[in-house]
Amino acid sequence: MSEPMIPLSVAVLTISDTRTEQTDRSGQALVERLTAAGHRLHEKRIVPDDVYRIRAVVAGWIANEEVQVILTTGGTGFTGRDSSPEAISVLLDKEIEGFGELFRHLSWQEIGSSTVQSRCLGGLANATVVFCLPGSTGACRTGWDGILAEQLDSRHKPCNFANLVIPERGQHG
């Protein structure tokens, strides 16, 4: 890869009723990986697993021209208040169906059939790419290392999502 990578502005949202900044290993793992890859952290927040609070934060970031990527962790399961897909799917202009499929394929190799309980989601909204990952640190590592590191790298060929959110490119590049 001879051309330089174009860093993206990334917002990270941890969705949890119990985590704090001190105990949020999943959100911190995403922050560490995205900054190590050369991207910029726009903001990191934690909100309870509540459809409307999740939706409010994500909608605000989607409307913010400075945010190019939103990564969420948590709320993708089937228990109790898990509601990330319901909160975020209505905000998307286009869903990235292959993201959930590929994540579960990679996750299958690590946790077996339990991966069917992951309702991770990806999509595009207002020139912002949004990825919803499960709340475990391992799942965040799997999603970043197996998919997001390449798809958020403007040099990755034959195509990537970075080039869809970089204003001067607006294409696969």
Question: What features would you describe in this structure?
Answer:
The chain has 173 residues and is α/β, with parallel strands linked by helices. It has helices at residues 25-36, 51-63, 84-89, 97-111, 137-151, 162-165; strands at residues 9-15, 40-47, 69-73, 94-95, 121-125, 128-133. β1 (9-15), α1 (25-36) and β2 form a beta-alpha-beta unit. α1 (25-36) packs parallel to α5 (137-151). It starts with 8 loop residues before the first strand and ends in an 8-residue tail after the last helix. Keywords: Molybdenum cofactor biosynthesis.
Helix-strand layout with pairing:
Elements: E1 9-15, H1 25-36, E2 40-47, H2 51-63, E3 69-73, H3 84-89, E4 94-95, H4 97-111, E5 121-125, E6 128-133, H5 137-151, H6 162-165
Parallel strand pairs: 1-2, 1-3, 3-6
Antiparallel strand pairs: 4-5, 5-6
> Major beta sheet, specifics?
6 strands, mixed
Strand order of the largest sheet: 2-1-3-6-5-4
Overall pLDDT: 92
Distance between the termini: 14 Å
* Secondary structural class: alpha/beta
- Could you state the order of secondary-structure elements as H and E? EHEHEHEHEEHH
Work out the radius of gyration. Answer: 15 Å
Q: Estimate percent helicity.
A: 25-40%
Gross geometry: globular
List segments where confidence is low: pLDDT < 50 over at least 5 consecutive residues: none
Keywords: Molybdenum cofactor biosynthesis
Pfam families: MoCF_biosynth
Family: Belongs to the MoaB/Mog family.
Protein name: Molybdenum cofactor biosynthesis protein B
